[in-house]
């Protein structure tokens, strides 16, 4: 399902763990445990400090330490480190720190406060890629950045040096429409630039519609369930594996995926209670019970 | 047009200056000049580190220094300091720094990356106000925060200690509809909590619809033109003064107000070129010329 021009690190399951806090400080031990869990499961790459990893909330020092911990515990598994920030200077600082930590690649979303113009977005990527020595994944996440990258912007940014993958928002759930969308986008990108999908509920469809990678939230906390989808022998089996997780997808839609995986991680003892950065809060008791119930349904051995 | 229960600092023209950079560093001298200009013009209060003042892009150190400079150069004019951040811990740090600098009040927008729930927003204000010793202005700016505060949330937050004003998004331009909106909102708020409007083009209407204050972008750079509106003897005169600035309002809508006032400040020599934090960029030459042309039209003496 992937093309050979795309480097292996940008194919298959890229798992995005939480960056857990304890008493509002980085929980080094829990974070190391989450990374080790992903390595043991055999994910293709680890997406440290993605949206699920709360990069937008952490200080430079916390981010640098998390990047170093992730690389240290990932061993041979490549680590992609999120470097987004509202200010260009802070993005460049995060890029330096990620490279210093040994990141295999970096991931950059165009965070915004004042709405950005297309020219500002392009020049952000231009200036960051001019500064980099590792590959860059373009991270298009309109739900959090409030920036929507057009296909024209994808095409322009994909020509910049170091750009090697684009993490696109959820694709349509209809397989034929999803395939048309991937084919159209592929036509706008150089052959060496992979396409990775976010939006866990449509990942099974997207991977068989031609996406190279799945940048996965659930894979960062329950990697085995995500690998059941990426390792399925065909599209039907992948969709069946995904459909079994429907109770989780419904909770993602209701509460936001990060709150749901935080509740799972806390329930499984992978992190302390209250692992998200305030003002984000853990789920209320009713929702937490629904998550625990759904988890028991989709993964009785968890 | 204002009620006597509302403290004077939260009435009339509150002017929001840029926080100008020079070579991507805080331009202390230009900032002092902007503050002095506002004091000389006679604004009622200064809104340092608002959205126009790029608070969301600056480091803790830059924000602390800007707050101190603003208070130092404001003399007797009260300074309201923006303390918003994505993380609660960073909001509390900014509150400490603002109080240490001598801020008369603080201004808090619920910045978001992951969308916030109503409960998360309420608890953010609850935790910050429990920590404060100065008044707080609730800053509702959905265009940048991507959070919309409901009237129920306004009402709940307005009961918290230290809450003294709410900076609401632009009101409808129709005077009767604007008055109905202010009256309805007033009915939900304690008498000591003022209502201030943002959205410069509708400020003349809003002030005569019952708003106590105008939290003003244009007032931060061209205070005299803003005072022409707030000091107008009646509603018709205020609207006429505002209508004279229509060329600027149109440019605000086209390019974002912060880019337009940055172009004006740079043109007038109040700041260095490139005073905004990247990835924000100054206007392209055509748009910049349009701004200079509009400025000459609305204020030939500028």
UniProtKB/TrEMBL annotation, chains A, B:
<dbReference type="GO" id="GO:0008747">
    <property type="term" value="F:N-acetylneuraminate lyase activity"/>
</dbReference>
<dbReference type="GO" id="GO:0047448">
    <property type="term" value="F:5-dehydro-4-deoxyglucarate dehydratase activity"/>
</dbReference>
<dbReference type="GO" id="GO:0008840">
    <property type="term" value="F:4-hydroxy-tetrahydrodipicolinate synthase activity"/>
</dbReference>
<comment type="similarity">
    <text>Belongs to the DapA family.</text>
</comment>
<dbReference type="InterPro" id="IPR002220">
    <property type="entry name" value="DapA-like"/>
</dbReference>
<keyword id="KW-0456">Lyase</keyword>
<dbReference type="InterPro" id="IPR013785">
    <property type="entry name" value="Aldolase_TIM"/>
</dbReference>
<protein>
    <submittedName>
        <fullName>Dihydrodipicolinate synthase family protein</fullName>
        <ecNumber>4.1.3.3</ecNumber>
        <ecNumber>4.2.1.41</ecNumber>
        <ecNumber>4.3.3.7</ecNumber>
    </submittedName>
</protein>
<dbReference type="Pfam" id="PF00701">
    <property type="entry name" value="DHDPS"/>
</dbReference>
């Amino acid at each position: 399902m992937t093309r050979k021009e795309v480097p292996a690190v940008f194919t298959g399951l890229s798992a995005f763990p939480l960056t857990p806090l304890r008493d509002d400080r980085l929980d080094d031990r829990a974070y190391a445990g989450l990374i080790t869990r992903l390595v043991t499961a055999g994910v293709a790459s680890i997406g440290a400090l993605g949206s699920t990893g709360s990069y937008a909330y952490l200080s430079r020092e916390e981010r640098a330490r998390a990047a170093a911990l992730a690389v240290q515990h990932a061993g041979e598994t490549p680590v992609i480190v999120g470097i987004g920030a509202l200010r260009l200077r802070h993005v460049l600082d995060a890029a330096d720190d990620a490279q210093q930590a040994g990141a295999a690649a970096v991931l950059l979303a165009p965070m915004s406060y004042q709405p950005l113009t297309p020219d500002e977005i392009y020049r952000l990527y231009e200036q960051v890629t001019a500064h980099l020595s590792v590959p860059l994944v373009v991270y298009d996440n309109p739900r959090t950045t409030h920036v929507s990258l057009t296909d024209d912007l994808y095409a322009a940014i994909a020509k910049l040096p170091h750009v090697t993958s684009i993490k696109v928002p959820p694709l349509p759930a209809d397989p034929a429409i999803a395939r048309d969308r991937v084919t159209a986008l592929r036509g706008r990108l150089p052959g060496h630039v992979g396409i990775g999908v976010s939006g866990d509920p449509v990942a099974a469809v997207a991977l068989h519609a031609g996406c190279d990678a799945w940048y996965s939230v659930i894979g960062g906390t329950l990697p085995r369930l995500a690998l059941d989808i990426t390792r399925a022998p065909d599209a039907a089996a992948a969709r069946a594996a995904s459909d079994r997780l429907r109770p989780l997808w419904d909770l993602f839609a209701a509460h936001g995926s990060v709150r749901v995986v935080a509740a799972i991680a806390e329930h499984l003892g992978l992190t302390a209670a209250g692992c998200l950065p305030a003002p984000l809060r853990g789920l209320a008791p009713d929702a937490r019970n629904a998550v625990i119930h759904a988890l028991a349904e989709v993964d009785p051995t968890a």
